[in-house]
Amino acid sequence: MDICKTIDETRETIRKLKTEGKRIALVPTMGALHPGHLSLIRLGRRYADHVVVSIFVNPAQFGPNEDFDTYPRELEEDIKKCRKAEVSLVFAPDKDEIYDDESFFTIRINRMNEQMCGASRPGFFEGVMLIVNKLFNIITPDVAVFGQKDIQQFQMISRMIEEFNHDIELVMGSIHRANDGLALSSRNAYLSSEERTTAPGLYRALQYIEKQIKSGVHKTTLLIDHQKSELEAKGFKIDYINLFSLKTLQLAGTLQHNQKYILAGAVWLGKTRLIDNILIEL
Ligand code: AMP
Fold this sequence. Notes:
By secondary structure, this protein is α/β, with parallel strands linked by helices.
């Protein structure tokens, strides 16, 4: 397995990996790898000969009061996990390799970041789209694997690939969960043991709402409000829980048949922000 810190070495290694028409799958991460990331690596291997994992805590996607400084960094451990998962190349650049002190161009997003995490994290998706573009240009993968866990990000990348004409196949990995249903996340490391016990409540609330929808409730306001109150009583602070159109990422009104929706939530438990979602097709 190659480990590259610079763009030049990475490009050189990619050129070698691509000989004889070999295909490359890219799995972008911010490190602190968990079994969810490893499931994306396995998925990548189904679509390509080589899997490249990038590990970069991207400063451009953190707001000034967010957790950039405390975000878990475990590069040595991550490298071991990648080696075991038969990754061909780990790209782990320093910040200065990716960003100049000064930049003259920015990415602007229309509408797709108005709701969900885009509403509560200004600048977040601009930072994500910027780094994903850079990674696509550096690695030039045939396939890129992203998780359903970050469904808004996935839908925006899908649209961005189309609009920016990246010649890349996008593949979605399902949400890897702990036995009690909590979606795995590098940020779960912030949870105290008591919070960790409470944390699966978010997924349970989403599952309850899903069940009610499937049994015919298509006006969901009261149903969702009730689940929010129950979560608040357990100590969660609600950022949002709602239904959104999968295609437009706008709030869904009364649900319609033959439409796809995202039932998504973001909540705080102490200083940890948890997100989760369920895809719903009526
Ligand atoms: P992150 O390192 O959190 O930026 O995530 C890197 C990639 O892993 C993203 O495409 C995420 O959607 C995906 N991911 C994060 N958590 C999970 C999970 N529990 N199951 C599957 N994929 C995940």
